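Researcher: Structure prediction, please.
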Amino acid sequence: MPISRSTTVSRQRSTASKTSSPSAKARKNMADSARAVIPAFDCGVIVVQVLDPSLLSYARAAIEQRVREKQNIADRIIPAVTGLTSLYGRAATHELAMARLLSETDNELPSTATVRHRIEAIGSTTDIDCLSNEGNHLLFSHVDRGGCVTLEQTLPKKLQEETKEMLLRLETKAKQEGVVVLLFLHGPHGDCKTWRGNYCSEVLVVDAYEPEPDASLGFSISAMSLQRSHPLGVGMASCNLTKTDDRMHFDWGIFIAPTVEERAMWYLHQKGRALREIAQILGIDDHIKVWRALNKIPKNIGSNPPDDWHEKYSECLGLNHGDSETAEANTNDDSEAEADFDDWDDPPTPPPVTRSRRIG
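Model: Predicted structure follows.
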């Protein structure tokens, strides 16, 4: 049977697409290369913008833990500090109690960690206005050169030019004093994360994140200075809070997607499942919805699906073990799975439109 011209052209396009599409290994190398050129952070102000105030206490405790562990935060390397001081307004009694509770996690500090941590109540109000002359002086009187100080402040409803000026003064003095200031801001945010990067060393944005099925709470963190590398999965991280009998644990990882269902789609696709197969396993009525979700996730973010993800996700997503195992046994061959991966950039081809023909 002769091969039609349309079939030949289709195959040529498919071959060209696969030839020009970068491999998973190449994409991973791009992410590693992007991380390798991230500039070192010395000292200054790191603004942490918390979009949901209910996440503030947990995000602050988790980030402070990373400072003590001398670990990076969303691929931003924080300099090793000699001490960590968490400042709270004396009237913030509940926030103080939460800080002491969350500081007692079961995260094991590395043997090289020598960072002492102090939680102090100062002043007579709830907030410490470090963007005022008095608050600025009070802040630096509680931190030594080479140390790190953290505090939180509510954003005003209307941002004044003086706010930007005071933030820049705070940044300048932090560099002069050789300290790291972690300033957690919450409240009306508007376009704050866009302008604030011009007045401080870094802006980290904490956003909502559906926790893993075995976790109590989750959030994501994005480094705005690395925004151009976000499509490679660089400059973004996730954190899950799990509770043991008497303590809490912060589990950090690479950010994949904000919802459990979207992460399940990515895990299944990493295992070679086709779009229609993923839709069937997850009970989604249209595989194009799966394509749209996967298209928002970086192709390769240097992370493999955890071994126990299927067991953890089964109950909350209603996965059927039997269907999944059968699908795995009857999975498409490698060429089909690779073709599906390479075509991730292009939407599935819609069925041809059949026009009715009127007779008579």
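Model: The longest helix spans residues 161-177.
Researcher: Thanks, that helps.
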